[in-house]
Amino acid sequence: MKNGMWKKCIAALVAMSMLAATCVVSALTPEEALIAAVAQLQLYGIMEGDPDGGLRLNEPLTRAELAKICVAIRGVPAEAEARFSDVPVDHWAAGYICVASDLGVIAGDGDGAFRPDDEVTNQEAVKMLVSLLGYGPMAEQQGGYPIGYLQVGIVQGITEGLTLVGDEAATRGDVARMASNALSVPLMQQVMYGAEVEYAIYDGTGEYPLQTPLTEWLSAAE
User: Fold this and answer.
1) Cis status of the peptide bond prior to 146, with omega within 30 of 0
2) Domain coordinates of the chain in residue numbers?
3) What is the rounded (10 degree) CA torsion for 139, 136, 175, 209?
4) What's the pTM?
5) Residue 148 contacts residue 39 (beta carbons within 8 Å)
6) 220 falls in which pLDDT band (50, 70, 90)?
7) Cα R_g (the chain), whole angstroms
8) How do residues 34-48 score in pLDDT, each as one tens digit?
9) How many percent of the chain have pLDDT more than 70?
10) Would you say 87 and 116 are in contact if contact means Cβ atoms under 8 Å apart?
11) Distance between CA 67 and CA 115 in Å, rounded?
12) SS3 string of the chain?
């Protein structure tokens, strides 16, 4: 599918998703949906509370905390090493940050630092989750950060049930909803390289793609 046609398809899907969001009433209230999302994440060990059990769902999330959530979603063992100047090996999130970097979920600030304690914005959270699931190249073709990632986030259902202001700090509760939504999104993986770039969508457990690889959508528009 050529790049121009793919963009038209994405635009149509985004429009339909936004329309559906205004017309369909969820069976759960926002509070019930949040409770269900948090319960799911706790069941899989993706989100944990404070030592006293508090989840602080209305408070912002840090870059380090979101890196931990992303690595937990993928179930990759966390191994710490010196990667960023402001994340020593003995930092509680060093292993998660290293793995998230390897997965292409996060990057430094260009000066070798990661800023682990900075608050994550909504658009940064969407970008990290979209990248985690393998849809980063698709998002780049749709305009890159932040618009392209937000569009893919809508189409893939990562932001379903949420009304987000992109540049505002992401709350732990909203990230819980996004992370829970992400659990049902199939992974996209590159399966062919070189001149004939192809991607396939996997269910995350099987060897074979769920659908025909999306051939040539990374190629230049005619």
Assistant:
1) yes
2) 30-186
3) 110
4) 0.79
5) no
6) very low
7) 18
8) 999 999 999 988 988
9) 79
10) yes
11) 12
12) CCHHHHHHHHHHHHHHHHHHHHHCCCCCCHHHHHHHHHHHHHHCCCCCCCCCCCCCCCCECEHHHHHHHHHHHHCCCCCCCCCECCECCCCCCHHHHHHHHHCCCCCCCCCCCCCCCCECEHHHHHHHHHHHCCCHHHHHHCCCCCHHHHHHHHHCCCCCCCCCCCCCECEHHHHHHHHHHHCCCCEEEEEECCCCCEEEEECCCCCCCCCCCCCCCCCCCC
Q: How confident is the model at residue 210 (pLDDT cuts 50, 70, 90)?
A: very low
Polymer length in residues for the chain: 222
Rounded distance, CA 179 to CA 38, Å? 9
Return d(Cα 103, Cα 180) in angstroms, integer.
19
Q: Which of 35-49, 51-65, 188-202 has the lowest mean pLDDT?
A: 188-202
pLDDT at 209 exceeding the cut of 60: no
Is 166 exposed, middle or buried (CB count within 10 Å of its CB: 0-12, 13-18, 19+)? middle
Mean pLDDT (the chain, rounded): 80
Dig out the tokens for 127 from the structure.
């970008």
Query: Could you give the C-alpha distances from 40 to 8, 48, 165, 172, 204, in angstroms and in order?
Result: 35, 11, 25, 14, 18
